[in-house]
């Protein structure tokens, strides 16, 4: 009964028009249909309840629409003007807006433009309400972002169908947007995970479609560090305490590596391996590695005092050519190989606690920057007799 009463009184003052007026209006209506052709959603015949805002300066029209929408299960808000509506949408979220085209002070077109230019409201679907003689305005509104229109007087069945279609369309868009956000977050997590095990430049190459990553590095400096006395110190500690100490030390080293622009290659037990000039070459690789080594000694001394632990650090450096690349199919690893790597490892293992042990190659490069103390000749496995040095503090 209420539907029949609403149909009898709906916009009754605007229903009369003669045949001469109707012909150009139907031509305008065809333009609206053309504008909607690519955006008109396919109605899905199932009940979808939504939060709907009705904007109309005519109180009878507002109440009529509000009653109909409420009976259909929607939560309805009403606004008598464009300014009032903009204030409401600034505070509450809506699934759909029904907007009258002709209103005083601020037209429906102006309200629509404001809604579409605000990030928070740009995606809310808007259905324009109009009489047939307002088709030119409707076309502009469709082109400005309205998803549909309702002619006055409206039929309840048409009202339900278009609202249901708009809400269904919004639901699908919201789901698509949520899915795209999940994909973006998953990609971001994968990127973060890759960056935790591979250099940024290598990740960019892999994302760019590179197959095998294998590079010849003409010259770089390799740093090996080993925590001295770690095994006897941690022999009586719980597993969590052992991991806690290592995490404390290596996290401090990680921050220094990032600070100096070096590249952490891996940890090996209580050992720590760094490269400077890999994967991106740099002329000052030896100096950067030396400054990093001294900073690592200072950092470990601070941790030693903090923990009261009898641990020390032994560091070895060597510079030269190397091969770098990514290995593994399921578990990626970026690593470096070559004689330079082996000799740097020997410098660490032949060194002494709390000193930086370097080859002549490093000493010659840094002679004018750091104080270098000769150690003498050592028999180095795989390299024979080598003259080695200890790196002291920087001279400048």
UniProtKB/TrEMBL annotation:
UniProt enzyme class: transferase
Domain of life: Bacteria
Catalyzed reactions: ATP + protein L-histidine = ADP + protein N-phospho-L-histidine
All copies of domain Response regulatory, residue ranges: 51-167
UniProt xrefs under InterPro entries: A/G_cyclase, A/G_cyclase_CS, CheY-like_superfamily, Cyclic_nucleotide_synthase, Nucleotide_cyclase, Sig_transdc_resp-reg_receiver
Main location: membrane
Family: Belongs to the adenylyl cyclase class-4/guanylyl cyclase family.
Keyword annotations: ATP-binding, Kinase, Lyase, Membrane, Nucleotide-binding, Phosphoprotein, Transferase, Transmembrane, Transmembrane helix, Two-component regulatory system
Protein name as catalogued: histidine kinase
Keyword Ribosomal protein: no
Residue ranges of every copy of the Guanylate cyclase domain listed in the record: 221-348
Gene Ontology molecular function, alphabetical: adenylate cyclase activity; ATP binding; protein histidine kinase activity
UniProt-annotated location(s): Membrane
4-aspartylphosphate modifications at: 100
GO biological process: cyclic nucleotide biosynthetic process; phosphorelay signal transduction system
EC number: 2.7.13.3
Keyword Membrane: yes
One cellular component term from this protein's GO annotations in UniProt: membrane
PROSITE patterns for the chain: GUANYLATE_CYCLASE_1 (PS00452), GUANYLATE_CYCLASE_2 (PS50125), RESPONSE_REGULATORY (PS50110)
């Amino acid at each position: 009964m209420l539907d029949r009463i609403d149909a009898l009184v709906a916009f009754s003052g605007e229903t009369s028009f003669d045949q001469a007026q109707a012909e150009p209006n139907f031509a305008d209506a065809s333009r609206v249909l053309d504008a909607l052709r690519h955006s008109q959603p396919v109605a899905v015949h199932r009940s979808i309840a939504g939060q709907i805002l009705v904007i109309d300066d005519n109180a009878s029209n507002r109440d009529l629409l509000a009653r109909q929408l409420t009976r259909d299960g929607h939560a309805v808000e009403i606004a008598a003007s464009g300014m009032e509506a903009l204030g409401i949408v600034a505070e509450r979220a809506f699934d759909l807006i029904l907007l009258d085209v002709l209103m005083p002070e601020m037209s429906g077109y102006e309200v629509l433009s404001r809604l579409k230019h605000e990030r928070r409201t740009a995606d809310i679907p808007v259905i324009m309400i109009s009489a047939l003689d307002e088709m030119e305005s409707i076309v502009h509104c469709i082109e400005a972002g309205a998803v549909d229109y309702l002619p006055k007087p409206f039929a309840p069945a048409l009202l339900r169908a278009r609202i249901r279609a708009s809400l269904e369309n919004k639901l699908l868009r919201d789901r698509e947007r949520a899915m795209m956000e999940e994909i973006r977050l998953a990609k971001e997590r994968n990127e973060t995970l890759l960056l935790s095990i591979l250099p940024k430049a290598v990740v960019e190459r892999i994302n760019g479609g590179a197959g095998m990553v294998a590079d010849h590095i003409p010259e770089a400096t390799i740093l090996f560090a080993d925590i001295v006395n770690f095994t006897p110190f941690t022999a009586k500690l719980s597993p969590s305490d052992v991991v806690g100490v290592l995490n404390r030390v290596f996290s401090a080293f990680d921050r220094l590596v990032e600070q100096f622009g070096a590249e952490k290659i891996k940890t090996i037990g209580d050992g720590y391996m760094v490269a400077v000039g890999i994967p991106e070459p740099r002329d000052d690789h030896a100096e950067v590695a030396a400054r990093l080594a001294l900073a690592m000694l200072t950092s470990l001394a601070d941790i030693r005092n903090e923990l009261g632990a009898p641990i020390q650090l032994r560091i070895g450096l060597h510079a030269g050519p190397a091969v770098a690349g990514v290995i593994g199919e399921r578990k990626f690893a970026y690593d470096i190989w070559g004689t330079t790597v082996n000799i740097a490892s020997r410098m660490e293992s032949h060194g002494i606690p709390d000193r930086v042990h370097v080859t002549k190659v490093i000493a010659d490069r840094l002679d004018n920057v750091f104080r270098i103390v000769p150690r003498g000749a050592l028999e180095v496995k795989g390299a024979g007799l080598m003259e080695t040095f200890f790196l002291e503090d920087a001279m400048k």
